[in-house]
């Protein structure tokens, strides 16, 4: 029997079955058609069954679907590495592929710790991360994520580093709003710099941990502090990458280049699980030398899978050729306009950035039953805790987007 994620299987006997997808629509076995409001965990940015992506995959499959990257190279991997270096913040010049976001984060953390080891700083092994952060489900990724339902069962076997606060005030916070969080970070760095290898953050938007948005000023200050105290800065852009926040990468809001950056989810447009961990020259160069032990000791079997690389390349081409950033700006304008007309005593806050819209309620029970209601109304949305959010495919039409938001409004008003 199939075992589902984050699911109490006692209640999971009759999950709806998807049989076809087309554009933003998912078709279920019982004939229902749903607009996917969350892009299948934020990955299906061009919608389902995209003819251009399908054709690129078929063509590559006719040559070879996969070859090991140990001791061999191939064109899709070389081209995707080059494309990622070109589109990510300047200075990230080296690309390590892996098969999922969590593993991409593992690679980032291993790279950071081994970087300092290779340079002779043996004590720099701890990782600093943000409150509410989510970086994946593998062990080290859980350690740098905030304590939550995701990791509670393992609390006594996790070796946690340090957790610091995100600044209040959202994207438009003032320097004064941000300063206490910056001071906290500096205090931690200044008294522990010999122990700290890296600071990992989801830049600008923390997704699975509750969709908290914070100021680019904080990232700029973090960059300076990381330089000052010899700490590597890691951006986990697994959720925010490829346009989701209105810039191609969230780092661009701050004009900051991290030392290491992880991308995943939308990288392959929802077709094949894959991730990439990018590093600067300074990080990469610390792995060079006469000793084999200085090399990065990681190598997923399916890293740089040729189908994954091919579909990622084609996806980047679609983003660039079809001016997706303007589409995302339009999506954001519609979200803001429609959200302005939603009000209820149940609402604790509303926020948006790029193609992300979030309504947070005061009490999670307000949202119980919402998923089934949305399905009956032809929409696939899945609240997380107190957060009702949408992250649609970028190809969504305005009327489809409005119908999703109308549904959110209808539910919130119904429970008033
Ligand atoms: C989803 C996510 C991950 C984990 O990616 P998987 O592909 O599910 O392993 C890591 N970091 C962030 C920010 C994510 O949103």
TrEMBL record:
<dbReference type="InterPro" id="IPR005814">
    <property type="entry name" value="Aminotrans_3"/>
</dbReference>
<feature type="binding site">
    <location>
        <begin position="300"/>
        <end position="301"/>
    </location>
    <ligand>
        <name>pyridoxal 5'-phosphate</name>
    </ligand>
</feature>
<feature type="modified residue" description="N6-(pyridoxal phosphate)lysine">
    <location>
        <position position="265"/>
    </location>
</feature>
<feature type="binding site">
    <location>
        <position position="382"/>
    </location>
    <ligand>
        <name>substrate</name>
    </ligand>
</feature>
<feature type="binding site">
    <location>
        <position position="41"/>
    </location>
    <ligand>
        <name>substrate</name>
    </ligand>
</feature>
<keyword id="KW-0808">Transferase</keyword>
<feature type="site" description="Participates in the substrate recognition with KAPA and in a stacking interaction with the adenine ring of SAM">
    <location>
        <position position="6"/>
    </location>
</feature>
<feature type="binding site">
    <location>
        <position position="236"/>
    </location>
    <ligand>
        <name>pyridoxal 5'-phosphate</name>
    </ligand>
</feature>
<feature type="binding site">
    <location>
        <position position="134"/>
    </location>
    <ligand>
        <name>substrate</name>
    </ligand>
</feature>
<dbReference type="Pfam" id="PF00202">
    <property type="entry name" value="Aminotran_3"/>
</dbReference>
<feature type="binding site">
    <location>
        <begin position="101"/>
        <end position="102"/>
    </location>
    <ligand>
        <name>pyridoxal 5'-phosphate</name>
    </ligand>
</feature>
<comment type="similarity">
    <text>Belongs to the class-III pyridoxal-phosphate-dependent aminotransferase family. BioA subfamily.</text>
</comment>
<dbReference type="InterPro" id="IPR015421">
    <property type="entry name" value="PyrdxlP-dep_Trfase_major"/>
</dbReference>
<dbReference type="InterPro" id="IPR049704">
    <property type="entry name" value="Aminotrans_3_PPA_site"/>
</dbReference>
<feature type="binding site">
    <location>
        <position position="265"/>
    </location>
    <ligand>
        <name>substrate</name>
    </ligand>
</feature>
<dbReference type="InterPro" id="IPR005815">
    <property type="entry name" value="BioA"/>
</dbReference>
<comment type="pathway">
    <text>Cofactor biosynthesis; biotin biosynthesis; 7,8-diaminononanoate from 8-amino-7-oxononanoate (SAM route): step 1/1.</text>
</comment>
<feature type="binding site">
    <location>
        <position position="299"/>
    </location>
    <ligand>
        <name>substrate</name>
    </ligand>
</feature>
<keyword id="KW-0093">Biotin biosynthesis</keyword>
<comment type="subunit">
    <text>Homodimer.</text>
</comment>
<protein>
    <recommendedName>
        <fullName>Adenosylmethionine-8-amino-7-oxononanoate aminotransferase</fullName>
        <ecNumber>2.6.1.62</ecNumber>
    </recommendedName>
</protein>
<keyword id="KW-0032">Aminotransferase</keyword>
<dbReference type="InterPro" id="IPR015422">
    <property type="entry name" value="PyrdxlP-dep_Trfase_small"/>
</dbReference>
<keyword id="KW-0963">Cytoplasm</keyword>
<keyword id="KW-0949">S-adenosyl-L-methionine</keyword>
<comment type="function">
    <text>Catalyzes the transfer of the alpha-amino group from S-adenosyl-L-methionine (SAM) to 7-keto-8-aminopelargonic acid (KAPA) to form 7,8-diaminopelargonic acid (DAPA). It is the only aminotransferase known to utilize SAM as an amino donor.</text>
</comment>
<dbReference type="InterPro" id="IPR015424">
    <property type="entry name" value="PyrdxlP-dep_Trfase"/>
</dbReference>
<keyword id="KW-0663">Pyridoxal phosphate</keyword>
């Amino acid at each position: 029997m199939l075992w589902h994620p984050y699911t109490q299987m006692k209640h999971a006997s009759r999950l709806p079955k998807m049989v076809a997808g087309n554009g933003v629509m998912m078709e279920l076995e019982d004939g229902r058609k749903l607009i996917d409001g969350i892009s299948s965990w934020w990955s299906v940015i061009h919608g389902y069954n995209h003819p251009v992506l399908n054709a690129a995959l078929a063509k590559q499959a006719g040559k070879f679907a996969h070859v090991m990257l140990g001791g061999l190279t191939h064109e899709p991997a070389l081209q995707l590495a080059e494309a990622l270096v070109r589109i990510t913040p300047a200075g990230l010049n080296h690309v390590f592929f892996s098969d999922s976001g969590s593993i991409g984060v593992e690679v980032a953390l291993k790279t950071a710790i081994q970087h300092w080891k290779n340079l002779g700083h043996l004590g720099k092994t701890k990782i600093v991360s943000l409150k509410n952060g989510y970086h994946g489900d593998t062990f080290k990724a859980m350690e740098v994520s905030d304590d939550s339902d995701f990791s509670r069962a393992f609390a006594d076997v996790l070796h946690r580093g340090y957790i610091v606060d995100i600044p209040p005030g959202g994207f438009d916070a003032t320097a004064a709003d941000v300063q206490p969080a910056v001071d906290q970070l500096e205090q931690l760095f200044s008294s522990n710099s010999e122990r700290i290898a890296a600071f990992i953050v989801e830049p600008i938007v923390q997704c699975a941990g509750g969709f908290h948005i914070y100021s680019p000023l904080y990232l700029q200050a973090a960059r300076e502090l990381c330089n000052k105290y010899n700490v590597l800065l890691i951006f986990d852009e697994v959720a925010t990458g490829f346009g989701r926040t209105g810039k191609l990468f969230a780092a661009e809001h701050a004009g900051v280049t991290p030392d290491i950056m992880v991308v995943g989810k939308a990288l392959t447009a929802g077709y094949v699980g894959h991730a990439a961990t990018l590093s600067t020259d300074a990080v990469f160069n610390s792995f060079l030398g006469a000793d084999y032990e200085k090399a990065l000791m990681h190598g997923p079997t399916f890293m740089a899978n040729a189908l994954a690389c091919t579909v990622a390349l084609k996806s980047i081409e679609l983003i660039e050729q079809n001016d997706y950033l303007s589409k995302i700006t339009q999506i954001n304008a519609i979200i803001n306009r429609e959200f302005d007309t939603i009000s209820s005593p149940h609402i604790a806050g509303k926020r948006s950035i790029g193609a992300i819209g979030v309504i947070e309620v005061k009490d999670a029970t307000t949202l119980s039953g919402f998923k089934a209601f949305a399905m009956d109304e032809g929409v696939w949305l899945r609240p997380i805790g107190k957060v009702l959010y949408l992250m649609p495919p970028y190809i969504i039409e305005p009327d489809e987007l409005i119908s999703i938001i109308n549904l959110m409004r209808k539910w919130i008003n119904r429970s008033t």
